[in-house]
Write a structure and sequence with these properties.
This protein has about 400 residues and is an alpha/beta fold. It is built from 16 helices and 13 strands. The chain has two domains: about 120 residues, Aspartate Aminotransferase, domain 1 (Alpha-Beta Complex); about 220 residues, Aspartate Aminotransferase, domain 2 (3-Layer(aba) Sandwich), CATH 3.40.640.10. The protein has a seven-stranded mixed beta sheet with strand order 2-10-9-8-7-3-4. It has a two-stranded parallel sheet with strand order 1-12. The chain has a two-stranded antiparallel ribbon with strand order 5-6. It is globular and about 65 Å long. The mean pLDDT is about 95. It binds pyridoxal-5'-phosphate and (2S)-2-hydroxy-3-(4-hydroxyphenyl)propanoic acid (TYF). (2S)-2-hydroxy-3-(4-hydroxyphenyl)propanoic acid binds next to helix 6.
Amino acid sequence: LFASVELAPRDPILGLNEAFNADTRATKVNLGVGVYFTDEGKIPLLRAVKAAEQARLEAAAPRGYLPIEGIAAYDKAVQELLFGKDSALLADGRVVTAQALGGTGALKIGADFIKRLVPDATVAISDPSWENHRALFESAGFPVVNYRYYDAETHGVNFAGMLASLAALPAKSVVVLHACCHNPTGVDLTTEQWQQVVAVCKEKDLIPFLDMAYQGFADGIEEDGAAVRLFADSGLSFFVSSSFSKSFSLYGERVGAISIVTQNKDESARVLSQVKRVIRTNYSNPPTHGGTVVATVLNSPELRAMWEEELGEMRDRIKLMRTQLVDKLAALGAGDFGFVKAQRGMFSYSGLSAAQVDVLREQHGIYAVSTGRICVAALNSRNIDAVASAVAAVLK
Ligand code: PLP
Ligand code: TYF
């Protein structure tokens, strides 16, 4: 049966973790995977999460099946984070939300639903994008193409190229957009640019699919929702996948959601029924723990305030690491890395080549993705000098 099975390639990012774990050097540093670490180098368990978990343990709640679309209080909280508490769309019943297995699970539910809706659609992802975007949409049966995005020369966005790529897509193509904190580059669009993207989507009859994996990591919860809010105001129907993996530091609990904006309440009811069908045939219904914890935090004024403070601490620490890295590289004569300060979220496209990344790993025990992506959220006061020195050495 399995004689002809070929060995599948490793995930380029998660595969790095395996290599890192096998490295015996005490000074090794993992800047590969997108995970936030504290200054002590640990994945935090947020205080708000701990409090909600304790409350849940004490309540000794039974573990029956959840509704197919998940916990109602969770879905509502997700909608308010994405669209704003006072959103007209929410009041009009134009948003359908289902709890999902992380942001990845949300993307897959959305993809499977679109496959039923527009089976011949093409999916366009940014060049470059999160590795899993292409694989996920291909596995849902779509051809996947790239739209122009990153400009290595300027460390910015090739916006004219992006608009031209989008305008050239066939009608009803799915456009996957990073709502904030672009992975892997850290380079986001400005509000004016977002407005133009909305206009192209409208004019060319494209299906926007916003992926929001890092809300709160750039400027704040509300600020980072700006792109979603622009699409909400546009009158378009669109998709949003969202994740609490990073913002709640709940990577392993798989807490995410798929939200779908429709034209009216009646469409919403029919869309929800189809989304439930997709979920039912994938995993029936979502798990209880992560969703309960997140809903408890978001719906308790005290815990929510605590969470927002903790999220702010994570955001500020990442920014501090950006500034310090840039300053240290400049002091070492490694050149002007000022663009790293302008990048947003966990990642930085450092500009290092694949060959330089190899030297970093082999000679210095510093792990980065071969594209030159580094996870700034894994830098800390103890490893940043070593990282800066190693990068400077590699660039000499
Ligand atoms: N989308 C993007 C852009 C991401 O960077 C990630 C990162 O993990 C995800 C989706 C997946 O999120 P999750 O880990 O919640 O599945
Ligand atoms: O880009 C990252 O590092 C995170 C984590 O298949 C991740 O988004 C990476 C690869 C993957 C799943 C999650």
